[in-house]
Predict the structure.
Amino acid sequence: MIVELAQYLAAFLVLAGAGFSLIAAIGVLRLPDLYTRLHAASKAGAIGAGLIFLALAVVSLDGAVILRALLGIVFLLLSTPISAHLLARAAYRCGEAPTAATTVDDLK
């Protein structure tokens, strides 16, 4: 009974993670400039991958796999915003201009 419930929960988490990853991919394709694309990829992509890691932790019965999945989530949550910030800052310093719809430019 509990194993079946864990499988249903894991299936829901995988579908939710795939949905967030799809939203991130659509955002990368449809958004107008590098900065908004980075925002979509870093936020929705990290949540999607984190939900898939969580599904792996739920369905696994091995403590080592659960620990690795949880450490993967922590690593994603720590590294994704930092790397997106560094990429955006490097692009800004190299002269990549934001779209005209961006009204606030705090770095000027």
